[in-house]
Amino acid sequence: MVFILVSALTGWIANLLGPLSGAVAALLGTALFAGLIVLGFAWLPSKPVPLRAHLPGAITLAVGIQALGMVGEFFVAGELTNAEQLYGVLELAATLLFVLYLIGRITVWSCELNAVSWEVWHGGDPDASPSS
C-alpha cells in the first residue's frame, strides 16, 4: 500500500514539473522507496545492525521495483490496450503474477546482499556486534 502511495506522489510531482519530470519522478521515487525499505529492513532482523548495513540491499530493491514499474508502464500498458477483452484479463493476471514473483526474487536477493555485505565488512563473522 505504501508503494502505491509513493508512486502516486511521484506521479503527482511529475505532473507539476516540466519536461524532465519523468527522470526527476523516477529518482525521487527510487529515493523514497530506498528510505522506506531501509526502515523495513531495520525492523525485520533479529539482531540489531546499523541502518547503513541495510543500504546496499535497499538501493538494489528500490531500483528493481522502480525498473519493474517503468517496464510495466511502457510495455504492458501498450499491450493491454490492444488485447481482446478475455485475453487482456488473462494477460493482466499472468503479468501480475510474474511481476510479484520478480519482486519476491529481488527482495530475497537484496536481503542476501545485506547479509553478505555485513559478513564481508565484519571479517566473516555474522554475529559481530554493530559497534565493531
Show the helix and strand layout:
Layout: H1 2-16, H2 21-43, H3 55-82, H4 85-121
Polypeptide structure, described:
- The chain has 132 residues and is mostly helical.
- It has one domain.
- It is 78% helix and 0% strand.
- It contains four helices and no strands.
- Helix 2 packs across helix 3 and helix 3 runs antiparallel to helix 4.
- The longest helix is centred in the last third of the chain and has 37 residues.
- The chain is globular, with a radius of gyration of 18 Å.
- The model has no long low-confidence stretch (mean pLDDT 80).
Please describe the structure with a list of short key phrases separated by commas or semicolons.
single chain, 132 residues, mainly alpha, 4 helices
Count of helix runs = 4
Structural class, from helix and strand content? mainly alpha
The quaternary structure here is single chain
Give the tally of β-strands. 0
Portion of residues in helices?
over 70%
The stretches of 5 or more residues where confidence is low (pLDDT under 50) are none
Briefly say what this structure is.
78% of the residues lie in helices and 0% in strands.
